[in-house]
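Quick one - first record:
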Amino acid sequence: MLSYCNGDCSVEQLGKYRAQRYRGIEATNPNFFFDAGSLSLYGAASFLYELFPSSNYTPDETAIASFFGVQMNCVEWEYIGERAPSGWKNRIEPYDLQLTGAQIGKTYQVEPVSTYVQLD
């Protein structure tokens, strides 16, 4: 994800990344199923820019890599253990379900994909 976004973990880049992942999995997995509940993945992506921003409240690769516990070793990402980045500050306002829902819509609308509805 960090390589795809090239250090820009904004709504726009994460929306494009989620759509790219969707297309890649759909093309290789004949059992792939993406329903409306799967849109929660877009909410999880919003944590990167809403909950894990750097000290100036913007998402950057260093802060996000720290939370995921990875670092680039010149060739590939390697696991080094999750931790809060130095200088990290918590959100000023709580991040609630209503805000998460708004970000799901915002991120999904960058590059919408099809959802399947299962009928009983």
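second record:
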Amino acid sequence: MYTLSSTSWPRRRHRAVVFTRPFSRRLAIGIALGYGIVCAGLYAAQRYLVFEPDTILHSAPIDYAFPVYDVSVVARDDPQRALHGWWIPASNPRATVVLYLHGNDGNVSTHMSNVTPLRELGYSVFMIDYRGYGASTGGFPSERGVYDDAQSGWDYLVRERGVSPANLIIYGRSLGGAIGIELALRHPEARGLIVESSFTSIHGLSERDARYALFPVGPFLNQRFDSIAKVGRLKLPVLYIHGTADTIVPIAMGRALYDATPSARGFIQVHAAGHDDVAALGGAKLSGAIAQFVEDAATLGQPGTDPRLTPDSAPFSN
């Protein structure tokens, strides 16, 4: 009995080994395939993770107590396609013009409160919706596509409205900040660039999200918005604005952009402001800083002027 029992153990042990090895191999292959499928899905879905367009306009120009006009802009990359925008003229026909580039969600109707300080300062404001936003056509947006759409907005102001680049401020908020940085690289002749609540890069943002910790995000990115790699080449005056309580894009990212921008003229910290209420909480101090930047930008960068002011010495810092 003992002999039969002892000789049976190696057989059972042998059968277990034969079963375990193929099972482990199949499990490893399954995990690898699943991981690859998830990576492929993330690669394909990036545009839908970055952009959140709203195709419904929640207000109309007639709803406002000040003049607002619907504008149709021919798309730069497709003459058969139209982009929609709102033109908010100042009472002074010679007023500074601001090309306002909004963030990744909503449309022009949901961002009207963000341009209140600009309008109250007496500037004319042109807000444009990228493809897929509001009434703009062209399918779902992409990084390359929104760069072209911002260029279309620039072309409309300069070529059709006759706005001098020397009187034109590019203003980008959040994702619009990254778009504005790209546009400013193309047009250093603009009077200046204002970047509000923007980030260093999509890769930088992904590193703050635990959901992507297991994935090699960098090599898989096809929507990069790599502002931190671009700002060192900006030639025009730049003003950065950021809320100190921003939990979507931390203020450290705004500071990193400022530090990497040789032509930066100031860094405005709006105390207690989050990602979406900078304009509401900035008050007179923010408006004054913007007004001073716009006024001084006409001469900043000319021979004999200081090419950069530090946050501590810049009159637009707080």
